[in-house]
Each structure stands twice: as C-alpha cells, then as structure tokens.
C-alpha cells in the first residue's frame, strides 16, 4: 500500500549548530516517504551548506517565520505537513505515529507532538519542567496537519507572532476538526544555548502583536495570554511542589516573560 507523502517545513536562520541534528532525525524516521523544505532567512553561516548535504531543498527568503512557513506550504507536495524548528530533533517514530493516527479518523485535522526541552543549563531544566505541565491545556498546539485543511484556512496568520503556532490550530478547529489528538513519540527541543536575556528580548518582540492576537482569536487568546490561567496550571498540580527549586525558577521565568511581553505590548501601542 502506498504511504502518503509528508512535507516537513523548517524555518531557519543561522542554524548551523542544530540543523544537521534536526535533518538527520528526519532522515532516520521509521516512516520513509518524507520531503523536507528548509525556509532559510538568508543565513550567513553554514546552514544552507549543511542542509544541502542532506539532499534537502533550501529556499532563501527574508521574512517572518509565519510567512516562511506559509511559503513553504505553497511549495509542499505532501498530503500532510509538519512544521518544526531547526533546533528540534524528532524521535524515530514521530512521523509514523502521526500518519497512522490521523489516518484513522477523518475528523482529525491536526496532531500534537509532545515536546521535551533538553540542555544542561538551569534555565533549560526550568523550561522543561514548565513544559511538562501543559499536556491537555490551551497552551499546547498541533504541529502535524492535513495539508488540504491548512490550505483551506490560508495557513498561519501572518499578522501574529505571539502564539503563532496556535493560530493555525485554532483556524482549523473552527472548521469542526479535532486538533488536540496526540501521539506518544516526542520532539526533543535542543536548547543548550538558551540565553535568558535573548529569551526576554524575544518575548518583548512577541508582545508587540499581543493586541492583534487577542483581537482576532478572542477567548482562546485571552486564556493563553492570561497570567492567572498560566499560574493556575502550575499551582493546582501537586507535582509542581515536588521540585521547589525548579518551581521557583518557573515562577521567576514567567514573571520576567510577562513583564517583557507587556513592555512590548505597551511599546507597540505608543507608536500608534
């Protein structure tokens, strides 16, 4: 029986440190019928060279991640599409599990792939601890989709950077499809070089589109952005208190991120 083609779309920018690991993990999948599209934002390192060594198509462009993903969608020829980042490593059965599960129910439009942050620094351990509480919450978003549905909703919302991945899931969900089914195999998010300062600068930048996100996506956006909803996820779970140092790290990290995003939001409104 012919197995449907899966298109994996990866936006990159100066990703030479991780892109090889990412592409190798895709090439080593137990599911073989995969095409890879690397959408590169004019990297000035060896990203393109490394990607091409894995016989991967590289498209050069100068745009935001959402635009890059949407352009990748127009070039993809698969029945299914999977959007991942260049610092992610797929467990060997990720694609196979996604194809198998989504093929069993025509009402499944998107699949959630569990993620685990890996790295040696304290803040990476904090981020992984934080991520472990999001299963089944509004914070999670699908990464694997039926391509026809992604095209039907015109892909990602290019006006939104904050919770960009969630915009696609929400648009498909409004069509009446399930986007909350999940597989067991994990994505390993390699965050060895995570910098708290760079992370907060990103949150500031993302915060600039917070109003647009809330305006377009209503209640779901409000819950995702709510500091009260986020902290209730942690504080209502007994497991959160089993590792007090990491728990304290999560609280400090989230407070700093909300502060940075808030400054970004205020800065965008001042300009208006």
How would you characterize this protein structure?
By secondary structure, the protein is α/β, with parallel strands linked by helices. It has helices at residues 19-27, 47-53, 65-75, 94-102, 122-131, 147-152, 164-173, 196-207, 210-225, 227-235, 244-271, and strands spanning 6-12, 34-40, 57-60, 80-83, 88-90, 110-112, 115-118, 144-146, 181-182, 187-190. The model has no long low-confidence stretch (mean pLDDT 94). The chain is globular and about 50 Å long. The protein has a domain at 6-193: Spore Coat Polysaccharide Biosynthesis Protein SpsA, Chain A (Alpha-Beta Complex), CATH 3.90.550. The protein contains eleven helices and ten strands. The termini are far apart. The strands form two sheets. The chain has a seven-stranded mixed β-sheet, with helices on both faces.
Let me know the largest β-sheet. Answer: 7 strands, mixed
Specify the CATH architecture of the domain at 6-193.
Answer: Alpha-Beta Complex
What's the arrangement of strands in the largest beta sheet? 3-2-1-4-8-6-9
C-alpha Rg (nearest Å): 18 Å
Class derived from helix and strand content:
alpha/beta
Number of helices: 11
Number of strands: 10
Strand content: 15-25%
End-to-end gap: 57 Å
Uncertain runs: none
> What helical percentage do the residues reach?
40-55%
Mean pLDDT: 94
Q: What is the CATH homologous superfamily assignment of the domain at 6-193?
A: Spore Coat Polysaccharide Biosynthesis Protein SpsA, Chain A
Shape type = globular
What is the oligomeric state here?
A: single chain
CATH class of the domain at 6-193: Alpha Beta
CATH T-level topology of the domain at 6-193? Spore Coat Polysaccharide Biosynthesis Protein SpsA, Chain A
What is the H/E string?
Answer: EHEHEHEEHEEHEHHEEHHHH
């Amino acid at each position: 029986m012919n197995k449907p083609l899966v298109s994996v779309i990866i936006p990159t920018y100066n990703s030479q440190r991780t892109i090889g690991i990412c592409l190798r993990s895709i090439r080593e999948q137990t599911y073989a019928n995969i095409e890879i599209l690397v959408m590169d934002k004019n990297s000035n390192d060896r990203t393109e060279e490394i990607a091409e060594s894995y016989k991967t198509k590289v498209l050069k462009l100068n745009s935001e991640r959402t635009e890059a993903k949407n352009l990748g969608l127009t070039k993809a020829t698969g029945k299914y599409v999977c959007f991942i980042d260049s610092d992610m490593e797929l467990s060997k059965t990720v694609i196979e599990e996604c194809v198998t599960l989504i093929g069993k129910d025509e009402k499944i439009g998107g699949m959630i792939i569990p993620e685990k942050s890996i790295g040696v620094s304290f803040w990476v351990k904090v981020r992984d601890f934080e991520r472990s509480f999001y299963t089944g919450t509004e914070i999670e978003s699908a990464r694997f989709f039926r391509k026809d549905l992604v095209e039907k909703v015109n892909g990602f919302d290019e006006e939104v950077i904050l919770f960009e991945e969630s915009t696609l899931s929400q648009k498909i969900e409004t069509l009446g499809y399930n986007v909350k089914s999940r597989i067991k195999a994990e994505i390993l998010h390699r965050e060895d070089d995570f910098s708290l300062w760079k992370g907060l600068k990103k949150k500031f930048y993302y915060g600039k589109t917070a109003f647009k996100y809330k305006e377009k996506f209503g209640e779901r956006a409000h819950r995702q952005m709510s500091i009260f909803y986020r902290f209730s996820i942690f504080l209502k779970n007994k497991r959160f208190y089993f590792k007090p140092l990491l728990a304290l790290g999560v609280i400090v990290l989230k407070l700093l991120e909300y502060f940075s995003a808030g400054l970004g939001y205020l800065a965008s409104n001042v300009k208006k």
